[in-house]
Write a structure and sequence with these properties.
The protein has a five-stranded mixed sheet with strand order 1-2-8-5-3, with helices on both faces. Strands 4-12-9 form a three-stranded antiparallel sheet. A two-stranded antiparallel ribbon has the order 6-7. It has a domain of about 260 residues: Cytochrome P450 (Cytochrome p450, Orthogonal Bundle). It is of the alpha+beta class and about 425 residues long. The relative contact order is 0.16. It is about 45% helix and about 10% strand. The protein is globular. Bound molecules: protoporphyrin IX containing FE. Protoporphyrin IX containing FE binds next to helix 12 and helix 16.
C-alpha cells in the first residue's frame, strides 16, 4: 500500500531490462509520469508513454499509431514469425484485422458466453477436488493455471480424455513465447502437434458444426467470408496465450493482493462473494497482467514536445497509466471499494456512463481485448467456487512474501511466480 518512491528525473533506460524493474516497476513508472511523460529511450530506440490520458490517446488514435509488428514494405510473411502461427495480432489496424475480429469477437460475449458458464463451474469444482483435502495449495500450478486452459479446451469441444495433453501443449507453447532457443523450438513443436491434432476436427466441424466454440469459429461468416483452416489454427493457438495465460495470471494476482496486500479486504470478499467482480476490476488497474503494449507511428507525431518520427516504436505502459495520480486518488493503494474507478464491465471506447475512468488493462479502441467478458466471468466464478470450499485461508509463507511477489515474466506478463496458501476445508 506504500507510495511509489520518487527516484528523481534520471532514468537509465537499461533499467527496463533489469530484475529490479521486473519485480517493482512502479517507482520507474512514477519518474516517467512526473519527469518524462514521453520518454525517448535511445538505448532501445523507442518512446515510452506513461500517463493515463496519453496512453488512452494513443490507443484511440488509429490514424497515427498502428500495431503492425512488421515493416509494411519489409520481407515479412504473415504467420511465419510467431509461435502462434498466423493470427489476428499481426494484422495491425488493417481491414484484414477488422474482418478476422468481426468473425470471432461475438463468440466471447453475451448469450454465447453465458452458454459456457455451467461448464466453468464444473471445471472449477474438478480442479478444486484435486487439492481440497491437502489443506494447502500452490495456486499458480494447481489452480490458476489449470482452470482457464481446461475451460478453453472444453469450450472448443475437444474430447475430455485429451484435456491433459492439451494442457501440456499449452504449457510448452507459453514457455516458448517468453524464452528463445530450446524453449521456442519446443513451443513450436507443441503448436505443430496441436495443429495436427485439431486439423481433422476443423475440417469435420466446418462441414458438420456442433455447438462448440471450434465449430462456431469454423463456420462464423462475415459477408459470406469464413476463416481459412490456417487462420482457425492460428486463432486456436492464440487463444491459449491470449485467453489462457492471461486469465491464469489475473486469478493469481487477485489472490496475491487479497492475501498479502489487503487481508482486510479478503475478509470483505469472504463475506460478500459478489465483490470478486470489483476485485477483478481493481486488480486490472492496480497490477494488471499485461503491463505494456506496443505501437508504431504511421507519421510524425509530437507528444509533450517530443517529436516521434514516422515508424517510431512506442511503448504504452498500461501499468503506469493505471497508477497516474492525476486520475486516481491514492493510486498505490489496492482498494476494491474505490469510488474513482469504473467498476464492472469494460468497453472498447473506454468511456462510461458513470463518468469514471476505467482501467487500461484490456487496452482500448480497435484492439480492445476480445475476451474481456470471458476473463472477468471465469476469474470471478472460479474464485467464488474456491472460496466456498475453504475457510480460514491464509498465506503459507506470511513471513516471506518475497518468494511469491509478482514480477514481470519473460513473456511480459506480471504475476506471482508461486503463491502458496493454507486453508481448512469448509
Ligand atoms: C485478464 C485476462 C486478459 C488480459 C489482461 C488481456 C489483455 C489484453 C490486452 C491488453 C489486449 C490489447 C492488445 C492491444 O491493444 O494491442 C488484448 C487483446 C486481445 N485479447 Fe485479451 N486479455 C485477457 C483475456 C483474454 C481472453 C480470455 C481472450 C479470449 C477470448 C482474449 C483474447 C484477446 C484477443 C484475441 C486480443 C486481440 C484483439 C485485437 O487485436 O483485436 N483475451 N487482451
Amino acid at each position: 500500500m506504500s507510495e511509489a518512491v520518487d527516484i528523481g528525473p534520471n532514468i537509465d533506460p537499461r533499467i527496463f531490462d533489469s530484475e529490479e524493474f521486473q519485480r517493482d516497476p512502479f517507482p520507474i513508472y512514477k519518474a516517467l509520469r512526473d519527469y518524462h511523460p514521453c520518454f525517448h529511450d535511445r538505448f532501445h530506440n523507442r518512446w515510452v508513454i506513461s500517463r493515463y490520458w496519453d496512453v488512452d490517446g494513443v490507443f484511440q488514435d488509429n490514424e497515427s499509431f498502428d500495431r503492425g509488428v512488421y515493416e509494411p514494405d519489409g520481407p515479412y510473411e504473415f504467420g511465419t514469425n510467431h509461435v502462434f502461427g498466423p493470427n489476428i495480432l499481426e494484422y495491425g489496424n488493417s481491414n484484414e484485422h477488422r474482418r478476422l475480429r468481426n468473425i470471432v469477437a461475438g463468440q466471447f460475449v453475451g448469450q454465447k458466453l453465458n452458454d459456457f458458464m455451467p461448464m466453468i463451474d464444473q471445471i472449477s469444482a474438478e480442479v478444486i477436488d484435486r487439492f481440497i483435502d491437502q489443506g494447502e495449495v500452490e495456486m499458480t500450478t494447481q489452480f490458476s493455471s489449470q482452470v482457464p486452459i481446461r475451460v478453453i479446451s472444453n469450450m472448443l469441444g475437444l474430447p475430455r480424455e485429451d484435456e491433459d495433453t492439451f494442457v501440456e501443449w499449452y504449457q510448452l507453447l507459453i514457455a516458448g513465447l517468453g524464452f528463445g532457443g530450446e524453449h521456442m523450438a519446443r513451443g513450436i513443436q507443441a503448436r505443430n502437434d496441436m495443429w495436427d491434432y485439431i486439423d481433422p476436427m476443423i475440417r469435420e466441424r466446418s462441414k458438420n458444426p456442433g455447438e462448440d466454440l471450434l465449430s462456431r469459429i469454423c463456420v462464423a461468416e462475415i459477408d459470406g467470408n469464413r476463416m481459412s483452416v490456417e487462420e482457425v489454427k492460428g486463432f486456436v493457438a492464440l487463444l491459449l496465450a491470449a485467453g489462457g495465460d492471461t486469465t491464469d495470471k489475473a486469478i493469481a494476482n487477485m489472490w496475491y493482493h487479497l492475501l498479502y496486500t489487503r487481508p482486510d479486504q479478503l475478509q470483505d470478499v469472504i463475506e460478500t462473494p459478489e465483490l470478486w467482480d470489483d476485485c477483478f476490476t481493481e486488480m486490472m488497474r492496480f497490477d494488471p497482467v499485461v503491463h505494456a503494449q506496443f505501437r508504431r507511428t504511421t507519421r510524425e507525431v509530437v507528444i509533450h514536445d517530443e517529436v516521434i518520427p514516422a515508424r517510431g516504436g512506442v511503448v504504452l505502459y498500461l501499468g503506469a497509466g493505471n497508477r497516474d495520480e492525476r486520475v486516481f486518488k491514492d493510486p498505490d493503494t489496492f482498494d476494491i471499494r474505490r469510488e474513482d474507478l469504473h467498476m464492472g464491465r469494460e468497453n472498447r471506447s473506454g468511456r462510461y456512463k458513470d463518468g469514471k475512468p476505467g482501467h487500461l488493462g484490456f487496452g482500448i479502441g480497435q484492439h480492445f481485448c476480445m475476451g474481456y467478458a470471458m476473463a472477468r466471468q471465469e476469474s470471478a466464478i472460479s474464485c467464488a467456487r474456491l472460496m466456498e470450499r475453504i475457510k480460514n485461508v491464509r498465506p503459507k509463507f506470511a513471513d516471506h512474501p518475497g518468494i511469491s511477489s509478482p514480477s514481470i515474466d519473460s513473456g511480459g506478463f506480471r504475476s506471482p511466480q508461486e503463491l502458496w496458501m493454507e486453508f481448512d476445508p469448509a
